[in-house]
Specification:
Layout: E1 2-12, E2 15-26, E3 33-35, H1 37-51, E4 61-62, H2 64-71, H3 75-84, E5 90-92, E6 95-99, H4 100-107, H5 121-140
Helix pairs in contact: 2-3
Length: 141
């Protein structure tokens, strides 16, 4: 591998960002690129700056590519998540759309309080079940 200065192009929805002068190791045989941790962190910080727009400027619905960017996965992973039922979306014609607040609750589940029962009733039931399982394990050990 040889160290070179390259240009990385990234996108967020309809926007495209080109970062020039990135130091990377490039394989001369296959063209594979390997980045240093500092370079990756710098690009993540730049991307995060664009992603952290005010709430009223964010689109309510995202397409597959935007969803993949938000979740930091490939588009194929998004399609696999749809197929397995882990990701809920709506199909408009040939394109999938995802509600941003649903995606954000996947990323930060502790902030999705509205969808949860905040009473301690379920916690107490769960604790009782776990205690019973622990007692059975101790008897059999």
């Amino acid at each position: 591998m040889i160290e070179r200065e390259i240009e990385i192009t990234s996108g967020w929805g309809e926007y495209e960002l080109a970062i020039k002068g990135v130091r990377a190791f490039v394989c001369e045989e296959c063209g594979a690129i390997s980045l240093r941790a500092e370079e990756v962190k710098m690009m993540e910080d730049i991307s995060r700056g664009f992603a952290e727009r005010p709430e009223d400027e964010r689109p309510d619905y995202l397409n597959v590519e935007e969803t993949a960017d938000l979740l930091r996965v490939s588009t194929q992973t998004v399609y696999n998540m749809i197929k397995s039922g882990r990701l809920k979306g709506t199909k408009f014609g040939r394109e999938w759309r995802f509600l941003r607040k649903n995606l954000e609750s996947l990323i930060q589940p502790d902030q999705a309080i509205a969808a949860r029962n905040t009473s301690t009733q379920n916690y107490e039931k769960d604790s009782a079940i776990l205690d019973a399982i622990r007692k059975k394990r101790n008897v059999h050990e």
